[in-house]
Write a structure and sequence with these properties.
The chain is an alpha+beta fold and about 425 residues long. It has twelve helices and 17 strands. The chain has helices spanning about 5-10, 40-45, 55-70, 85-90, 120-125, 140-150, 165-175, 185-190, 195-215, 225-240, 300-320, 325-340, and strands spanning about 75-80, 100-105, 110-115, 130-135, 155-160, 180-185, 245-250, 270-280, 285, 290-295, 355, 360-365, 380, 385-390, 390-395, 400, 405-410. Strands 4-3-2-1-5-6 form a six-stranded mixed β-sheet, sandwiched between helices. Strands 7, 8, 9 and 10 form a four-stranded antiparallel β-sheet that branches. The longest helix is centred in the middle third of the chain and has 21 residues, at about 195-215. About 40% of the residues are buried.
Length: about 425
Amino acid sequence: MNRRNFIKTTGIASTLALTSTQLFADTILKPFPGKGLIDPAIIKKICDRIKPITKEERAQRIEQARKLMTENKLDAVFMEGGTSLEYFTGIKWGRSERLFGMLLPRKGEPIFISPKFEETRAKEQIGDGKLYCWEENESPFELLNTIIKDFFLMSGTIGMEETTRYFVTDGLQKSIPTLKITDGTYVTAGCRGIKTEHEIELMQIANDMAMEVYKVAVTQLKEGMTESEFGKIITQLFAEFGVSGGALVLFGEASAHPHGLVKEVSLQRNDIVLMDGGCSVEGYESDITRTVVFGKATQKMNDVFNIVLKAQQDALKFAKPGETFESVDAVARKVINSAGYGPGYKYFTHRLGHGIGMDGHEWYYVVGGNKRIMEKGNMMSNEPGIYILGEFGIRIEDEMLITENGAKILLPKQKSLEVMF
């Protein structure tokens, strides 16, 4: 099971009762009468800010895609059901062996292709859009052949959305040998990689929810509980906001492995507790890591925490439009290496960050070798870490937005192993 699926499935079917227990920092937090553990007033205040993406916004996205098609000499872009299709159209469609997708031409209206027996469900989401259907005994690629011929694109250039499966690309190419098929990432990532003010606000809301969940979650820590038990509590707390969310939970020695171990670990006094997760709001993700100690931190734990925090903050100060993604990674890595936790990836074993938006991990990656220039509106994680096998690991992760003059994180920075926000 990959990390993202772990986060999504931890505690989905939990029957764990959220009762008052001995809590983190030796306090007692009681549920609100008839409610959960999070203050209903806080839930309402945050949820009242949620506004769905409008049709007008999606139309603007399509126009931007057409502009990028022109710049990259593409006649059209094709995409299957998935995140990019939802981004441009609002259509939610799972993938199967039966092809459903959209051909977005540089000139003209989007065209959708669907299995015939799914026509009614497709029309529900497409509305007045152009829809072509293929029967079970027909080839969807022959249908695409006809559509593309109508657009005089038989020798044109079509960009494929980068997650499109091979059988789709191969089937289209064999159906139209004269068609030039290329990478459509310049268009899809070019649009999705620059966040609008509305997208940023939705991600801020998702971050604010994560902050409130983490604040309450740590009050439920108790000696002997397992990582999965704590993960179920986090999932239930996100559910109080009416959203899907969860976290990868690592206790003690498991925290020295960035994505944990297969074996289940139980919490012991003075263990490190690492929580890495978030939620989705109107399709936009949060991804926050906070590392705390259940009990009293050792001097080494505090020292490592301060090194990781400095790496995060130095990268934050350095990041701005015009800098390369790899240079920001290098700033954080230098702090950690200079503190004796090097060289290279020895203790800081992963990249500094990943893009985030409608997918938890998307363009662009803050890693050595990525010479792409940062732009205003890029959103990414800033998550340095130090992992000492056999002992513990510490990671601090925040979402970082590139602004006109620099960068900012969406939540208050972590101050210590006792103060998360």
